[in-house]
Amino acid sequence: MGAGELVASPPGASVLVWLLATSLLPASVIFLLPEQAERTRRVVNMAGALAKVGLVAVLVVGVFSGREYEWRAPFLPGIDLVLRADPVPLLFVFLSALLWLTTTIYAIGYLREDTHRSRFFGFFSLCVTATVGIALAGNLVTLLVFYELLTVTTYPLIVHQGHARARAGGRIYLLYTVTGGAAVLVGTVWLQTIAGTVAFRETALLVTLLPEHRGALTAIFALLVVGFGVKAGIVPLHVWLPHAMVAPAPVSALLHAVAVVKAGAYAIVRVVHDLYGAELAADIGVLTPLAVAAAITIVYGSVLALAQQDLKRRLAYSTVSQLSYIVLGVSVVGLTSVTGGVAHLVHQGVMKVTLFYCAGILATSLGVTRVDQLRGVARQQPLTMIAFTVAALGMIGVPPTVGFITKWHLGLGAVEAGQPWVIWILVVSTLLNAAYFLPLIARAWLAEPDGEVAAWPVGVTYPARRQGWVRRPKLRSEADPWLLLPPLATGASVLVLGLLAGAPLSPISWAGEIARELLGRV
Amino acid sequence: MSSLMPAVLWTAPILWPFLAAALVLIVDRGRSVLVVSGPVPALLFAVLGPSGPAPELSWVLLDLRLGLDPTSRVLLLTTALVWMAAGIAARRLTQQQAGPGTFWLVTLGGNIGLVLAADVVSLYALYAIMTFAAYGLIVHDRTPATRRAGRVYVVMAVVGEVLLLSGLFLAAGAAGSTDNGAVAAALAEASGGSLIIALLSAGFAVKAGIVPLHVWLPLAHPAAPVPASAALSGAMIKAGLVGWLSLLPLGSTSAPGWSATFVGVGLLTAFWGVAVGLGQDRPKVVLAYSSISQMGLIAVLIGLAFASPTATPVAVAAAVTYALHHGVAKGALFLGVGVRSTWTGPRGRLVVLAGTVLAGLSLAGAPLSSGWVAKGLVKSSVAAADVGWAGTLTWLLSLAAVGTTLLIARLLVLLARPIPGDDVAARPMSDDGVAGMAADPLDRALVSGWGLLLVATLAATWMVPARWLAGVSRPEVYAASLWDAAWPVLLGLALAGAAVLLRRRAGHAVVRAVPRVPAGDLVVLAEATVPASSRAARRMVVGTVRLRDHLGGLVARFEARVRPGEGFVHLDVVLRRWQVAGVLFVLLGAALIAALGGGVG
């Protein structure tokens, strides 16, 4: 196959390319903008984010009405870069587009007083481009390329604040993710040598290789899962995650809900179900170890979260724990369980993004970064804390939030799959989640503010991040709408998506379709 | 349209309270009206609504299903009636601020919804909504004491939720369906059914205040404002019963083991409540212990329903009738405590005492009272269960009625004490902050709600069960049956009188000699171990952290080496030092070359 010889793409391909372009183009424009061009940058950012949501809507409608979307271009001899809108990718790209929109709004408000905003938003857009690429990747090589791009584009966001601690955090992040990426690379190349280019969803091909290459397939699986597991925060590969908390709140939000961490979990879902397929993976006996690793991570993450006094670090360890719900769901193979795992891609996203938005608001507007400073903050910022409370209850799995919907599927699915031990993991996790979230909620709503907080004037002034004091005449010192609306929207979705879980386009119904497709295929 | 109407009809009782809760947050006035309106659709539905399964609402939660059978109709009526009367009484609580009304309506919505829920997901969801929203009612005044009550409540609630949820996973898995009926049927046969039944029973028992899971109740019910206490103790406490009736495999086979367990634990609870309650100094705490005791009797009825399929219908009918009777009577008694502090002076005191005697006699099952009707059904259940120990049980149940009478007498003594605002020599009543309201003008709304429940106490069990429940008739009035019901009450009164006389004669020495158990009994022991156990927990967490540090030691040392600078240049340096990574990269390069050069197979 000669260079420049483009493979004919089906007509729908341009949508996929434009999905990447809606964040790639804004990135290149924003890099060129001068720092003070706030208004232009805002317009470009919002236009890109809105366009992406619109395109995803087009894509969703198209796929549901039976169209196929695929784009491919030659990358290496014999290896194409492929983007395809398969069922799982569709769900993930949907999530990415929506949360990118809310996070962009939030970030505009959050970084209002910051320097280096062009750099920030440029890389922010690149980061989303890479995530969308990961989402839509049609084969392992494409996934790897975007996965590495994600590693690189996220680094400047993590070290954004530029001080020593930020750089240290960024260093540890790179160390882990680059090493993880290397493992994925080895796995990918190894697979390429024995099987050629394996497109996702062509699991039958690997099954034919099983008799000859059982050992190799097992090793490749391990390499891929370890590599992706770094980003997904599977213990003991999670070490970088709390360090990366040094990033600004919008970055943490995006990292934990969509981009880096979620991308790792998503990649594991694809490896298990779209590359190997549940039957093959079960056959080579890798699913039980994976489920056990996820179970250990769930408990371990929660125990460590309990020990954290820094709010964002507590949330970070909570992510470690929650992400493994996804891994657990997809590795305990059964319709209900896989449904829960896949849906948790979305569920965990909306919950965690809300929590990080709120943590960011508390940190910037009230200077609250530790859990013991939360006393009475709900009086100062009731709306923020309502969003926080709903999301935290969701993490515990209190109905009717989305967290409950996930937990129900995981628990019931475990019983159906004949692995009732998972229930006890869920029980322990619920208790631990309650233990590290409920006291925060009670403290915020019920405790008397201590002297420090009481000194904050009600609704008149509060410290801005860099430039002294800003006057904001308001009844309460609720954050400004750019900061407040995103958590309110995502917080509401935590409730609504759970309450209307049975509706046709809810994440769980969608995930149910996906799971049926995934498990019925082989 | 034709399919929309039934859906609206069925969901209105659940939807309206939540909608009203949202409205309470928005509006500036009329909050108390919204609060009162909350249970109205449910009340109407209980009286006029259709029976049988509702049209499916597959969009909501995981395929929400609702249903109503005769027994749940009685429970729905109980729930709606008590919440409504309490809502009327709560005017002062709800009209000024949005918070209490919101929590009130959400709790109420969950409580009504769980009665109507016909699938386990909705049942659990609404149950949990009720549980967590009630926390807001309990910690209303934010004092350290109520926050402690709230803490104990939440811990026990989470324990209950977890028991319940794990039981439901196993149950729904065994049944292959989330239908309440299918789950109950599957539990009768499923392997491992005993574990599931144990989990579900215990999970619901937390709400019902069954010993030893009751510890939150004597703290939480009195901590809430009076009208909320009435709703919690009158209506919400029955959620445990709803759960048992919905999911336990009653009536399919006889289960002597479960029968004996429920009867035994129920009797323990009944007497425990009396024993600890008698030593209490605050009227609301006495009432809370009385609720525990009464729920023990309801647990006994569940035990009888387990005994044999023939006994099940009458035992279940007895349980719901008892729930109705206890709901209105206990609601009235709680509101009476509130009325006492707002209607001061000799006249008010007399009215409150009279009302309390009325509701109290009914609670104890005095002849011709509404409690007597309920107790008549209890006796029939014992007979129908046809167990060897029926005679003993009958005798113990009468003894429990003696205990109930004693508790009511204790309550009367406490309520009779003068409070500030009475014209008598002022001695502050040691009540839970209600005394502080004594100077307030008469709270007419509170008195109205109280009056409504007193009327219901007189009428409810005479009117409702015989009409709604199949095979239930009003008890016949004849001398023997009257005497059966009368002697425990008379004995209780005699004992109480003797105690009062003794105290007059012997003074406080005797009183002090009686051992007093603090409210919450066992929880005090548990709290004593909190420092130690939290130390242990902390050690565990710290241990985990250390383990991480230890395991990560190599990594940490490695990270430490990556000291100055940033980016890939240094990373590269480090990676080169790190042999493993180096080897990996070499391997990887080789593999890459092989892949690119050799083509693919």
Summarize the structure.
The complex is a heterodimer of chains A (522) and B (601). With 522 residues, chain A is mostly helical.
Structural notes for this entry:
The complex is a heterodimer of chains A (522) and B (601). Chain A has 522 residues and is mainly α. Chain A has a domain at 283-449 and 477-522. Chain A is built from 21 helices and 4 strands. Chain A has helices at residues 13-32, 38-64, 87-110, 117-136, 140-158, 164-195, 203-232, 240-243, 249-257, 260-276, 278-283, 287-307, 311-331, 335-366, 377-380, 382-396, 402-416, 421-446, 451-454, 481-499, 507-520, and strands at 70-76, 79-84, 461-463, 469-471. A two-stranded antiparallel ribbon of chain A has the order 1-2. Chain A has a two-stranded antiparallel sheet with strand order 3-4. The two termini of chain A are 31 Å apart. Chain B is mostly helical and 601 residues long. Chain B folds into 2 domains: 4-247 and 254-525, no CATH class; 566-601. In chain B, strands 1-2 form a two-stranded antiparallel sheet. Chain B is globular and about 75 Å long. The chains are: A mainly alpha (522), B mainly alpha (601). Chains A and B meet through helix 6, helix 12, helix 17 and helix 18 of A and helix 7, helix 8, helix 24, helix 25 and helix 26 of B.
